[in-house]
Amino acid sequence: MKIGSPKESKDQEFRVGLTPESVSALVADGHELWMEHDAGLGIGITDADYQGVGAQIAEDAARLFIEAQLLIKVKEPNAAERQRLRSDHTLFTYLHLASDSAQTADLISSNAVCIAYETVTDEAGTLPLLTPMSEIAGRLAMQEAATHLGKHNGGMGVLLGGANGVEAATVVIIGGGIVGSNACQIALGLGANVSILDSSAAKLEQLARQFGGRINCVLSTPASVEQYVISADLVVGAVLIPGGRATKIISSALVKKMKAGAVIADVAIDQGGCCENSRPTTHRDPTFIVDGVIHYCVANIPGAVPKTASQALNNATLPYIKELANKGIKNALLENVHLRNGLNVCRGSITRPEIARDLGLEYSPAESVLAQLDL
User: Fold this and answer.
1) At 355, which CATH number?
2) What are 329-350's pLDDT values in tens digits?
3) Are residues 147 and 294 both part of a single domain?
4) pTM above 0.90, yes or no
5) Which residues are catalytic?
6) Own/partner pairs for 147-155, CB < 8 Å, 24+ apart?
């Protein structure tokens, strides 16, 4: 199979879909690999490095899209890339379609097969291709948000860990999943007072054991969210509805009641954000202020640490890429229910019910769509 990885097009996105190690493994399986010119420079990898493990170099994205059948990316394709998609293409990347009607419409029109990392599942019921980036996003969001508490960055001027005789800052994390638990780990390491809110009592019990009673675990209700957000110096929004649009947990009215100079880090922004005020920002311009509260809503947080993130992502995605390439797209999707759960758009049909529900579109079960295809 011809497999290609374009240079990422999102602003300040330095990750790469395929590392040289992944390219080498796929070449060893007999596949033809294409990398766009300079695709790996963000992690210090040159075209010569890729050629050294058997890849061919496309001078630009247009050539790469012509050559490749299976396209491996990190972030969602931009509008120009979506226009290059063909019905014989399979796209494998993060998509987050439930909050992106324009992208969804273009992918439907392309008639391509579009598989989203974030909805691939495993036997344990987790999201194995989302997990490594969620770990990084949770840790990095806490670090970045903490810097914006500094007065020089517009914050209230408090240190997360306080000082001798001075109380530490109050951190509230909404959502106790991978993002939330990793954000908690960093916040505790920096000496903050941490509360985690989650709607699952079982999850809260697990977190209490995990962190040895060093955090305050609270059942998430509208009343508890309001109480804890109002008292917080820093809030991390870490809610996740797999495949679906994030619930607006923090209303604009609630933000008005928060402390001046407090910070909200909305890590759910890829799925529309869990704060009513949220809109996507970039590493170049990461924050905006509403009612005196700093909102950090970077939509590709792990892109700031691309060497770590690219390796972690490739470690997770390579087995699935090999399965798609070695078995063929249709057979791989039909034989592996967990990979099939990643199928979001297939030849003009929406194959995830959450996306169809959130965007008001028709849903078609993946099995029935795949059964009719000659892939």
Assistant:
1) 3.40.50.720
2) 999 999 999 999 999 999 999 9
3) yes
4) yes
5) 96, 270
6) 148/263, 148/287, 148/294, 148/296, 149/233, 149/234, 149/261, 149/263, 151/261, 153/287, 153/294, 154/261, 154/287, 154/289, 154/294, 155/261, 155/262, 155/263, 155/294
